[in-house]
Amino acid sequence: NGFGRIGRQVARIAMKDPEVELKLINASYDAEYLAYQMKYDSIHGRYNGTIEVDGDSLVIDGQKVALSHTRDPAEIPFKKHGAEYVCESTGVFLTTEKVQPHLKAGAKKVVFSAPAKDDSHTIVMGVNQETYDSSMECVSCASCTTNGLAPLVKAINDKFGI
């Protein structure tokens, strides 16, 4: 949900992982614009694959990816398209309460691409990923600052103490 810089990078990574199937992108813009944005990135460069528009879907590397265009998460057709794990990258729905519509619409798990605005669990890979519990319906993957700093702080703390 959300196809800005983070949403597009998640899609790029998902398309290169054989264990992940990108099912659905929810974004406000039309298919042509979304295809262009995915294909050409001013920071990460041109997408190394094929991107085509097929009606109101994208075909990325030969795989059809459905699009939806709603701002109301209760209306996003996660279940219809088999989207079980959702990257919430709009920056709007950052609490357990605010992602309940995602879950009711068929998502099994939601990962915030930004810091949670409540006490939802935060995971920083390389720091505390072992604290993840499969019963958690949503988790935050922190902020870019936290992801940059926390591994360094952990290493210093583990070796010398802080």
TrEMBL record:
The text of the family note is: Belongs to the glyceraldehyde-3-phosphate dehydrogenase family.
KW Chloroplast (keyword) present: no
Query: Entry's Gene3D superfamilies?
Result: NAD(P)-binding Rossmann-like Domain (3.40.50.720)
- Which positions make up the signal peptide? none
Q: Which PANTHER family match?
A: GLYCERALDEHYDE 3-PHOSPHATE DEHYDROGENASE, GLYCERALDEHYDE-3-PHOSPHATE DEHYDROGENASE-RELATED
- List GO terms (cellular component aspect): cytosol
Keywords linked to the UniProt accession: Oxidoreductase
- A Pfam family that this protein carries is Gp_dh_N
Q: Which GO terms describe its molecular function?
A: glyceraldehyde-3-phosphate dehydrogenase (NAD+) (phosphorylating) activity; NAD binding
Q: What are the recorded Gene Ontology BP terms?
A: glycolytic process
Q: What organism is listed for this UniProt entry?
A: Strombidinopsis acuminata
The name on file for this protein is Glyceraldehyde 3-phosphate dehydrogenase NAD(P) binding domain-containing protein
According to the entry, every stretch annotated as the Glyceraldehyde 3-phosphate dehydrogenase NAD(P) binding domain falls at: 1-144
